[in-house]
Amino acid sequence: MRTNGSASQEARKVGGAEGRRPLPQVTLCDPWRGRLGATARVMGLDNARDRRESENRRDVLGEEPQPCSWTLHGRLERGRLSSAGKVARQVSSLQISATSVSFLPSRENSSVMSQNGYFEDAENESPGGYGLLHTSRKYLKLKNFEEEIRAHRDLDGFLARARIILNETATSLDDVLRAMLCRLAQDPYNSEPDCNLDLLMAMLFTDSGAPMEGKAVHLLSDTIQGVTATVTGVQYQQSWICILCTSKALLRRHVCISRLVRPQNWGQNSCEVRFVILVLAPPKMKSTKTATEVGRTFATMLLDITFRQKLLKTHTEEEFKEALVQQRQLLTVMSHCPSISMDYSMSSICLFRHPQPPQQKDFLPMGKGIQEDIARRFPVYPLDFTDGIIGKNKAVGKYITTTLFLYFACLLPTIAFGSLNDENTKGVIDVQKTVAGQSIGSLLYALFSGQPLVVLLTTAPLALYINVIRGICDDYNLNFSTFYAWTGLWNSFFLTLYALFNLSLVMSLFKRSTEEIIALFISITFVLDAVKGMVKIFQKYYYGHDARLFKEESSLVNLLGFNSSLHTALNTSFLTSPPELTTTGSQDAEPLARDTAVLSLLIMLGTLWLSYTLYQLKKSPYLHPYMREILSDCALPISVLTFSLISSYGFQEIKMVKFRYSPSENLFEIAEMHSLSLVAISSAMGLGFLLSMLFFIEQNLVAALANSPQNRLVKGTAYHWDLLLIAIINTGLSLFGLPWIHAAYPHSLLHVRALALVEEHVENGHIYETIVNVKETRLTSLGTSILMGVSLLLLPFPLQWIPKPVLYGLFLYLALTSIDGNQLFQRLELLLKDQTSYPPTHYIRRVPQRKIHYFTGLQVLQLLLLCAFGMSPLLYMKMVFPLIMIAMIPIRYKVLPQIIEAKYLDAMDAEH
């Protein structure tokens, strides 16, 4: 995009009332000396001082102030749809900028700029001058490396006489550019006898011809920047900038690239610059050899975020040049596929989304989807074990921290749901069986799945289903293990049919709003599980005495022959009690029991606070970036270990609630499948069908979120094969009476995020994060599965040292992190905010406020309906809540368009 600009210094404040339609903004202060530039509206000066300055300007100029505006030329294309599915693509392009400025003298009381680039008050220093900044913008076409020969010649000429500055320590743009010009001057092959460095330096900025030296607007005259256009708006790529200069004193073209040691803040749209490309050229050149054309070549290469990360990891000029050559080859190949967006050059195309609802022909022939998944994933299967271990870009440290995080994130919910299953099934499915099933199932999935980044767990909905099955068995006097096995087998049978007939394509009908409703429902279940557990603790220990229980526990300890000091130190609440409780009555036991309840609450909240604080540490300015990343990745293990030690050793005299553990006599006993009647087996088929709907939705939905385009996964998807693998794994778990598992939310997304390299940028004062790439490996899932198996040896101790409040704190942490980025939750926050503080999101700019609130209200109604069935105290109502999830598809396509216009629905349902 081409920008020509000239601006008045006095228009330096953000004018206009909050909430008005935004007006064009221009940068006024010195944004190229490492300082944030103030912005000012050329129209809409609302405060009294602005009106006075407007009147003074009218007196000086003899005319009314005119509004400033610009027109964006060029068409922003929505991402094309690949043959396999619909993609919410980002279309990247280039923006070329040029500025010019002229000044009119003024003695009015206004802010002026000092020589070093800061604005100073005229009352305290010296009077300044007004200026006019004329701005225009134009999109540049990306360089086609297959068809345009000049692109290769530009790069070959640069490689032959490479001027590359690695690890530049200068912080201001002036110093960086002067160092680059000096590097060009020192090159004996590029001597320019008539060239003056000071003259070139002055021509790079707009203040070269300013009549009032030191009072000029110090802006770059001609630049190219990358922009990324999506359905949510336009974002600048702020990590690089290409600076152009045309001078008659030059005899030939020159290119210099400088890589800065640290990102520099050089003003609006350039807040984190790491690369500076300087292009110099004489004016009389062929149209294909101008400074703009040369700059377009290098700007096209730097438009790829993955390529920029490669350049950051180079250590020598030879490695830098080698990376340029590889990028040229990649761009040449990409020219054969014009539908692929530049911003996703190194990313996979989401094969899950379809531009249209699937047709009948898409479901046949049988097994077609599985074959395509295997053909897509099998060639890169060895890389799943070697990426990050062998070759460049090693990530062993990240793998270790991610494995530890994932281990604790999976272990604690497994213990919690195992304890819940133990209570619901009267010990048939206990903690030991839950941990064993988790280890075996996740190990098989990590080895053979098409998307190993997806994490398998037994979840709260599955615990509800197990409770329903137990209730049916009690009502009709059925053998629980056998009925459970038949239900699981029918579930696997239906899942196999779904995989063979490619029914995962139906999930393309789920819009973003529906996904967010289900995701928020899962978050609510985590919160309710934590709240229910804490309420039980308060009911038992704060409002009740339970002295009889303490005495019975103490008698049990004496019978077992434990040493009192030892069991007091271990604080084993279900097997022991402090000695003093054996000789006291209920009146003495009550204060201690209340201490247990209060301490449990503090432990739960402390676990949440510490884990979330460490998780957010990577966004803070404290410590070294590497240390921040490690602490953020290890937030969960650190918080769990910290508060487990605090509760066990810091408060030994206070009884803490631990999970119950009773070793299974027959851990891998096959159920007696022949002991049920045909009627009972038919009933199990009905339950198995409803359970398969839950598996189908959860597995595909979580996998789709993990494979979303913004995660930039490159090895492809395997929805149909993974669904078949889930059916096979749960067949074995059902036969041995182990709890079922499927894809877990938000663990899978947190796993992807832990393995991702993230780049931050600032837009309109808001910090946004962009995933550069993700280490797609099986090693972290394998390591977690192995550690889960080892955990069987840690039962009951030391794992029983982890109190239940820590588990509840983990649930709250998972709920809190899962709502990050959930637009439904963000729109609910709007109801509590002042309208002037609304964030500049795309749907706020494109959708009327009333329609936004209507849409949010309808989503809340669907969420309440889902919660009413999924959390109902009636067991049989819980069985049908997967059907409520399916019912959201016709609600979205048939009901909502009758209330809200389709164009507004599409805007609020835009892809991530």
Automatic annotation (TrEMBL):
Asked if the keyword Cell membrane belongs to this entry, the reply reads yes
Q: Name one GO molecular function term.
A: symporter activity
- Per the record, GO CC terms? basolateral plasma membrane
Main subcellular localization, coarse class? membrane
Keyword Transmembrane found: yes
Bicarbonate transporter-like transmembrane domain sequence ranges: 368-911
What kind of membrane protein is this, topologically? Multi-pass membrane protein
Q: Which Pfam families does this one have?
A: HCO3_cotransp
Per the record, the similarity remark reads: Belongs to the anion exchanger (TC 2.A.31) family.
Q: What is this protein called?
A: Solute carrier family 4 member 11
Gene encoding the protein: SLC4A11
